[in-house]
Write a structure and sequence with these properties.
This protein is of the alpha/beta class. It contains 13 helices and 6 strands. It has a 6-stranded mixed β-sheet with strand order 4-3-5-2-1-6, with helices on both faces. Strand 1 and strand 2 form a beta hairpin.
Length: about 325
């Protein structure tokens, strides 16, 4: 039976975004920066590839003579997360195309989308939209993160929230410069393979730009709270640990907890950031296969878990889906 679509409308006129930082982090951490060096692995690291453990989630999707691969990435990392192991590396080499959520290395495209969606109208400032108490808390967190006040003064509140979240993740020891997606983009370019996007920067940023002003302010308030109470750091470590272990069940549990802790904003996050996007990405993967491609699809690992994850959606459409990393290890907390 195909997975049921989540409701297209989430009731309620306003939202609190408390406790949904795990879902948010998995949505947006891929686009501010990505390390994508266009080089092949040097001969002296082939032994490292052979010795590398399995990390993330990995599936093969078959229909007829066509095969696609689904690799569950994490949008931040550390240098010691690489290289990826040989099966994943060779699967990319055997594929016709690398398909990613978004190619964050296209800097001008990203800047143009930000100008369209994330910046306040000329003459307006972020501080003018905030209460004195919220301005004080924002200033304190900017100082704690080593960010100048002017760096976000032209941002809409939702964009300020995303920026603070990314900075907080980096402060926890993980960097978007070492995103798995960026590593794979660099490897694909070294192999002279085309890189295609399953989404656009306008699609991603536009999700938040539709929020009412009151919800944007609540969003920023909760971003600050997640930094103040340490929840963002805890969630980041838990997510990274589950990804390193290839623990799909732990990843699904983490997402479920983030939803259950807030029944109001959780459904919005789940519907907009995962369910609707997963259905669109599944359709675009099918189009690549219909066009004769054999794509290696690299998307955030949470897009591959649960009844509305890409493996389940493609299986429901008649594809044979094989888990290439079926035995996950026990998740250990990453520091």
């Amino acid at each position: 039976m195909p997975p049921a679509r989540a409701p297209s409308h989430i009731p309620g006129n306003s939202m609190s975004f408390r406790a949904c930082w795990l879902l948010l982090f998995c949505f947006m951490a891929g686009w501010p920066s990505a390390r994508a060096e266009s080089t092949l692995p040097a001969p002296d690291i082939h032994a490292q590839i052979d010795a590398a453990p399995t990390r993330g989630l990995f599936y093969a999707v078959h229909r007829g003579t066509r095969t696609a691969y689904l690799f569950g990435t994490i949008h931040v990392g550390r240098p010691d997360f690489f290289p990826l192991e040989r099966r994943a590396t060779e699967a990319l080499a055997d594929s016709s195309t690398l398909a990613v959520e978004l190619d964050a290395t296209q800097a001008e495209t990203m800047r143009a989308a930000m100008r369209r969606h994330a910046l306040l109208p000329d003459g307006e400032t972020l501080g003018a939209r905030l209460s004195p108490a919220l301005r004080t808390r924002l200033a304190a967190q900017l100082d704690a993160l080593g960010m100048p006040q002017r760096s976000i003064r032209a941002y809409k509140p939702w964009m300020a929230a995303l920026t603070l979240t990314l900075a907080g993740v980096q402060q926890s020891g993980f960097d978007g410069a070492y995103a798995t997606d960026g590593y794979l983009i660099g490897l694909a370019r070294g192999l002279h393979k085309p890189v295609v996007e399953l989404e656009s920067a306008d699609e991603q940023l536009g999700l938040f730009d539709t929020l009412p002003r009151t919800d944007q302010t609540a969003f920023l308030d909760e971003a600050l709270r997640s930094l103040e109470n340490g929840k963002l750091a805890d969630d980041t470590r838990a997510l990274v640990s589950a990804w390193l272990a290839g623990d799909a069940r732990a990843l699904e549990r983490l997402a479920a907890v983030s939803l259950d802790e807030n029944p109001r904003s959780g459904p919005w996050m789940q519907q907009k950031l995962f369910v609707e996007r997963n259905y669109r990405m599944a359709e675009r993967i099918e189009r690549l296969l219909a066009d004769g491609q054999s794509p290696f699809v690299a998307v955030g690992a949470l897009h591959l878990v649960g009844p509305n994850g890409l493996p389940a959606l493609l299986a429901a459409r008649g594809y044979r889906v094989v888990n290439l990393y079926p035995a996950s290890r026990t998740t250990k907390e990453t520091r």
